[in-house]
């Protein structure tokens, strides 16, 4: 049995679908199972990783785990997994663990702590470290639908965005094959693209011209999504500014693990065109 946490998220939902297609027994953990539209045959379990003391039932009979890094409590989750007999964990971590100082970057700190917790629990692990998710562009969907505009800082910031289903493909390969144990994969899309280039790719996908209105750093901080801590927004803006001059690396990890190249941002935009119309 494979337990998928974060099963209603962008990556988790793709992991569930791919595992079902592979003929695996899947249990999906969700805070609110009533909102999930899982494939037939998936066992659905209500649970919250931030409250690991109530997860014993979710882990019953589980031997492999796809773990979406929770905001807190990874050490307790890892302990529950070990005690339940889980033998393999695929952790969705972040490239920030290698690119930022966890002492000052809360994103890096969260994921570095999760990796440490899994190691300390003596679980057999694979770490997935995606850099930039293509799906982050969904934050622009509202203004694109309403006004045909994207407002953000640093239009020339460079990204290496990865399709969430490519991350899921690597995750499933690691869940199904012990050869990936002990590996940490830096995951990116196949090419670098600027934020302005991403907006143009979305425009091409939906057949509608779009504008990019550049914000100052102060304006971008003020316009950050509700609930985003200012220190997180500041680190993201720092990263964007740095990438204007220095392009992020591109890896071939998706192709090495899955046997096919990662999909482009243009393909992601075509796959998700409905979100922007």
TrEMBL record:
Pfam families: NAD_binding_10. Residues 6-177 form the NAD(P)-binding domain. This is Uncharacterized protein YbjT (DUF2867 family). It comes from Pigmentiphaga kullae.
